[in-house]
Amino acid sequence: MFRTLTRRTLTGVAALAATGLVLTGCGGGGNEPAALDTEEQITLNYTFWGNDDRAARYDKAIAAFEEEYPNITINDTFTDYPSYWEKRQTEAAGGGLPDVMQFDYTYLRQYGDNGLLLNLEDYFGSGITTDAIDETLLATGTLEDGTFAIPTGYSAWSVFQNPGLLADTGVEPYEGGTSWEDYDAYMASVTEAGGGTVYGGTDTTQRIQDLELKLRQQGRELFTEDGELNFTQEELAEHWTEGQENRDSVTVPQSKLEEINPVSGFGGAITTSEMSWSNFLGGYLGDSGAEEITIVAPPTSNPDEKDLYRKVGLMQAASAQTEHPEAAAAFVDFLINSPEVGEIFGATLGIPASETQLEGANLEGPDKAVKDYLDSIEERIGDAPAAPVNGFGAVEQTFWDLGKSIGLGAVTPEDAAKQFFDEAAVTLGN
Amino acid sequence: MTTDSAHAPATPRTAASGARPADHRRTGTPRPRRRNRDTVAGYVFLSPWLLGFVGLTLGPMLASLYLAFTDYNLFTAPEWTGLENLTRMAGDERFWDSVRITLIYVLVGTPIKLAAALAVAMLLNYKARGTGFFRSAFYAPSLIGASVSIALVWRAMFSTEGPVDSTLNLFGINMGGWIGNPSLIMPMMILLAVWQFGAPMVIFLAGLKGVPAELYEAASVDGAKSWRKFISVTVPMLSPVIFFNLLLEMINAFQIFASAYIIGSGTGGPGGATNFYTVYLYTRAFANNQMGYASAMAWVLLLAVGVLAFILFRTSKSWVHYAGDSK
């Protein structure tokens, strides 16, 4: 048959194959209000980002909800954080967002301002109880047109340590809240004792939160009041360059982290410490399999500066297009206020914002450690930065990707800083 | 297929092309009404495909052509910006990086894959016990190769202390994991592509069956050894099939996405080394919300592949010998 293959058939095949190149997306959705009927069988889609530990907790919470509302079934799915937002963007464009979503403060403005989220204010007092929710925290979900998300709780930047792993190296734990030099010295001793299998920590310049912490220790913020970057390209290059010494010989090699991604170095139990948000404790315990994880304050270059802040992270939100807004509101209310949910999640979605949930949480063990930590840094807690600018999520991700590339030696800090500014100009200009 | 095509060169070269007009005359001209009915019936049978083509391929393609000239962030209505996406692309370092990475992958990976496919096809062309089994065995990877699970398996295989690293360590080669190493990830991606040589192999095999045994006999009589026979008989006789495979594999290679997305964690990692064109396009569209820019990239890719295919067609005149061509 191939002996008679002609030029014409080949042209056809080539044209067909080339047509397959173009990617497209589509979707649909309805928009009908419905009263919360206790007879009608309702199915709600719910989605969240997280790991197995969080998934197991949500399973329990959903079971409790379904017991209370026997006519509502919750279909839940989860992924890791970056792909979570890629999926939501596609759904947002096609009008097919899930009924209820775990949400992030970072993306609130983008989705809320574009009419994609259900205005939960319409259900305050009739479905959603707000009495028990901390007022300042509740206000973080409010934009000009309404309240589009409710925070589950709050957290703060912190240093986690794995005492079990640390004991094997014989190094004393980092005490927390001292100078950067102290922390660097701690990481270096662990790495030296770890013999190439255990490291003291992860590059402390890699993430935008690292830069934010450094800026706040100088009394500055990441963004100006007008939502523009509040640091220069040179300063960013310098920031990344400062991490070079640690990257060369102290912190865990980025190539090792690439292999275990999406689990972090600390989660994979190859570093004894890592800086992150305090609500990561539950996830870290699950990922690393460690029996105990301790939490202390990040190092500071200026102990008098109020560099830390209460971060509203996780929120719950519903789609503007859900066919069952009443049921969606009931589920949001349950996730935010139910003491039972508090007991299930502890402090893993942040220290609960709702008083009733906090009581139910009855914090003990690791959760109590988080609460104690947040109480202990009271003096360092300053005002939270303004609500994240539209596009912050993308900027944050770009920063991290570039930080990783520097760690792999694929790009110099100077080039990375230039790329970051080019990128941010486009993203924030949107 | 074997007997028919083997005898094809013996028939006059106009026979194949002459048959078609004759067919038309027979069914068409004398009975126009019947012909119209046939045409209608033809389109009716085609309609499910046509609907799908217009609704799911053509429509979105036209939409993306429009979006290519807009600034569209998925949330608000697209804004016409003319050629701005293209000018931005010209100055976008990561864009050129992705072009470079993709070209290396295509230009290095495709020839190796085809060479492997041809070599194995020639081995399997010998009549020996178990060839049926080996044909299936070699073909299997190309069926599953593009799947997510295989990408995950390769990720695990090539990580530090994974099977590949451990095996190399046995031989005293200590390279560490390939997954986290920006300079080793490309060889691994190419290896993954080459490993899926089954599809072109089957096509080569069919082509090899069609090379008339007389030609080899004649060559032997003239004293040609195996290499000479390969260069002077197999390659020219196989050239349409080689061309076909080359074209198809090249276009496929440009579209590499799933495995690169999984292995590079969706961000083109490590260090941008798996930032293939389609991965970057995806990042722009869904991670950075720049659907207009991504659409422009899609069209640039389409045009670039079109141009490359056109060039291949032009060069093919000098090295592809079709049955029926005078050359």
TrEMBL record, chain A:
Keyword annotations: Signal
One Pfam entry name: SBP_bac_1
Stretch forming the signal peptide: 1-24
Origin species: Arthrobacter bussei
InterPro entries recorded: Bact_solute-bd_prot1, SBP
SUPFAM superfamilies: Periplasmic binding protein-like II
Protein name per Swiss-Prot or TrEMBL: Extracellular solute-binding protein
